[in-house]
Every structure is written in C-alpha cells, then in structure tokens.
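User: Hi! I have a protein structure encoded as tokens and I'd like to know what sequence might fold into it. I'm fairly new to this, so please keep things simple.
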C-alpha cells in the first residue's frame, strides 16, 4: 500500500510572492497537485521523485564523472559565467564562492528587472510596501499595466481581496483601479461585491500615462498631444483618489515593462513611479509594490551584498576582487557576445528557466532540476534535488523583509545542488 503524507503551511518557491499556506499531499513520492489551486505552484511541484542520470555530451555518466568533466571545463575557463541562480540561499552562497574561485561573472536569470530596480534605488530611491502592508493597510490599489495574476497568481485572493485583514475597514472600503488595456472578467469582484475600476489605456500608451500621472500629481499641465491620446479626466480622478487615500499602493511589473518597452524605457517608467512615491511622502502615504522576485532573485541579491558588498551582476577578478556593474555584467549579453568562455547554469525552481544559447566553442554546465527544459544538450548536465520538495532550504520574498523556510516534503536519492557545488569547488 502506498503511504500518503499530508504537509500543511508549506512555503512555495515558484514566484516571489512567497505564499506559505499550501497544503500538499505526497503519494508514493509524487505530489498530489490537484490540491494546489495556483497554476504556477502546481507546475513547480509537479515532478516525481525518480532519480535521473547526469550526462556528458548527451551520454549518461556517473555523478563523479560529470563533476570531473565540469571541474576540468571550469579550470580551463578564463572567465566563466555563473548564472541562472534560481536556487535556495545555501546553493546561491556556494555558486558565489565558485565565481570568486574561478574569476567568474555572477548574474541571475531575472537579472534585467532586478538591475533596473537596483539602479533606480541607487540613483533616487523609492518608497515600497511589504506584502503585509498591501494586504492590511492599503485603501487604494492601482494596478499599472498589470493584472498581477501573471506574476503572482494568488495576488487577489491573498492581498487585494483577502478573507481577513488586521484592518477590516480598509478591506471593506478598498478600491482597486486597473490602468491598462483589457481587464480579465475572470478576476471577478471582491468578497464585498466591489468591482475593479478600469481606466482603459492601450499598452503602447502606458509610458505616456505614467508621465501624465506624474505631471498631474505635481499639479502641472499635461501637453495637449499627450492629453488627446489618454483618458485624461479619468487619470485626473485617479490622481485625486490617490491624494485622498490613507495608504495608496501602486503595483507594477518591471519585467513586463522591459518586455513591452525595452530596458531603457522601463527604467524611465520605474524611475518616474519611484519619484511619485517620494514626492507623495511629505503629505501622503503612496508606496510602490513591484511584482517579481521569481527564482529567489531577492535572496540571491542579498547574498551578493553580504558576501561581496555589491548587489548582483558582479565580476570577480582572478585575485578574488569583486566588481559590480549592472549593465556591463549582464550575463546573457556577455554570453551572446562571446565575452565569457564557459557557462554554469544553476536552476532549481522554474523548469522553463532554460540555459541561454552559447557560442559554438563555449562549454555549458547545467545543474538543475530533472524536468528542466533544455533547448540544447549542454556539455555537462547534473540533475539535482529540489529545495522545498526534496530538501529544506530558505528563500527571500519579493518585498525583501521575510525569509521563507522551505520544507522537505519527501525523500529523494539525488544529491542537492550544494553537494555538487561543494565537490566542484573542492576539485578546482
Ligand atoms: S502565488 Fe506564487 S508563491 Fe503563491 S502559491 Fe502561487 S506561485 Fe506560489
């Protein structure tokens, strides 16, 4: 008879929103995903516990052989890229140690959005909310170009329309205003029957809308050409609503801005939103809540800061000195331009976080979950167990204030990423 186990209060590492209330059943080593209502979490937990084999050039080998070949490739490299970094804190620490040892560049697969936000914080700063403040304190939530559920599928259930709040009046009176193209009717209404207000702005016009909001906030005139393109009266009313709010929250997705408008325009937008939160702070409480933080990038950034003194996108010199440049050490660009000569891709959470393409002579080492989608056969592939499922670990939530302990829900004979990274480092 198959033994069944039920785990409660399980933390989920499959997006940065950091829910820790899942109930998960394990039957015969597999997760009963039918209990999980979040599609991202369901996809992440849906992997069986059967061991998988390492490969070198596509051929099955032992773990020892794979580590031997990987260490030889890293030893030969002058400047390897160590990236992906979708891992729990312990594994990220070891990846950083490997970068330090090899004179490598350290980046994360979600490094673009992170770097935009780091630059905005470094240059001007912003006021940001924690998830708990959004859930409990906000009386107005503005969704700017995002319906939130792509980034954090449980945003409405957990934060916008939670069943309970420490401040029930805020919840009862909470207004949610979506500024963007199409609003999905599937998202329904609040438990109190309130609908989301929709201010329709075409995706291409969102940068104009952000600019107009900032001008309206400052009491300045919106240029006529911009005003003609936008529903200006509604944006003016939105500004008034925010000005009257006790705790207004502006939600956006930096990564979605980058996808839609490119990295430079996205940076201008995030900068403008950060400035609005700052300008408001003298007389109001308006805060930002940028969705994202997938793959424990916030935790990886913290480790980079603790260990090197810099946020992510670090290049170590051969003597171990770290340098930080969020534009110059963009891992995917360095790889595409042939400015690194080996890739080590570490990814334990998102099975679609595939290693990026390498130039023909650039060897690739992938340490990842066994169901990782691979667009090409890497030089070395080393399957490992998954934190939060096969072993315990820690990640950091998107708002940077909560470390989430991940539980071991079952046993698994595969080594952990830490085991492999330790062995690799010892062999260098
Ligand atoms: S919203 Fe994010 S953290 Fe919450 S269960 Fe879904 S994937 Fe996990």
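Assistant: Happy to help. Inverse folding works backwards from shape to sequence: for each of the 428 positions I chose a residue that suits the local structure. Here it is:
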């Amino acid at each position: 008879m198959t033994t069944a186990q039920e785990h409660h209060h399980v933390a989920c590492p499959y997006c940065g929103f950091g829910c820790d209330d899942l109930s998960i059943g394990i039957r015969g080593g597999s997760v009963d995903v039918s209990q999980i209502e979040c599609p991202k979490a369901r996809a992440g937990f849906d992997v069986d516990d059967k061991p998988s084999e390492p490969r070198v050039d596509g051929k099955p080998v032992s773990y020892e052989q794979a580590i031997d070949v990987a260490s030889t490739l890293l030893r030969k490299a002058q400047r390897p890229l160590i990236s992906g970094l979708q891992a729990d804190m312990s594994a990220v620490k070891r990846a950083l140690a490997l970068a330090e040892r090899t004179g490598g560049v350290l980046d994360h697969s979600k490094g673009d959005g992170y770097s935009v936000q780091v630059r905005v914080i470094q240059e001007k700063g912003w006021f940001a909310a924690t998830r708990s403040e959004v859930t409990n304190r906000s009386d107005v939530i503005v969704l700017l170009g995002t319906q939130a559920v792509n980034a954090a599928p449980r945003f409405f259930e957990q934060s916008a329309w939670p069943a309970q709040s420490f401040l029930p009046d805020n919840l009862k009176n909470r207004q949610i205003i979506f500024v963007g193209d199409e609003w999905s009717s599937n998202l329904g209404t609040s438990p109190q029957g309130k609908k989301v207000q929709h201010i329709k702005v075409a995706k291409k016009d969102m940068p104009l809308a952000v600019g107009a909001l900032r001008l309206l906030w400052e009491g300045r005139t919106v240029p006529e050409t911009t005003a003609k393109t936008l529903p200006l009266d509604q944006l003016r009313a939105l500004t008034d609503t925010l000005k009257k709010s006790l705790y207004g929250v502006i939600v956006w997705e930096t990564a979605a801005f980058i996808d839609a408008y490119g990295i430079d325009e996205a940076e201008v937008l995030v900068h403008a939103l950060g400035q609005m939160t700052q300008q408001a702070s003298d007389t109001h409480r308006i805060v930002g809540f940028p969705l994202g933080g997938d793959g424990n990038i916030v935790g990886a950034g913290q480790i980079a800061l603790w260990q090197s003194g810099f946020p992510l996108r670090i290049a170590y010199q051969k003597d171990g000195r770290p340098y930080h440049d969020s534009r110059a050490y963009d891992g995917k660009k360095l790889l595409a331009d042939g400015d690194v000569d080996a890739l080590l891709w570490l990814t334990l959470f998102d099975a679609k976080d595939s290693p990026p393409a390498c130039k023909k002579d650039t060897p690739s080492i992938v340490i990842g979950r066994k169901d990782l989608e691979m667009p090409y056969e890497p030089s070395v592939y080393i399957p490992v167990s998954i934190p939060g499922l096969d072993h315990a670990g820690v990640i950091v939530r998107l708002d940077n204030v909560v470390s989430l302990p991940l539980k071991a829900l079952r046993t698994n004979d595969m080594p952990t990423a830490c085991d492999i990274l330790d062995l690799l480092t010892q062999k260098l």
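A useful reference point when you look it over: The first strand starts at residue 4 and ends at 10. Feel free to ask if any position seems puzzling.
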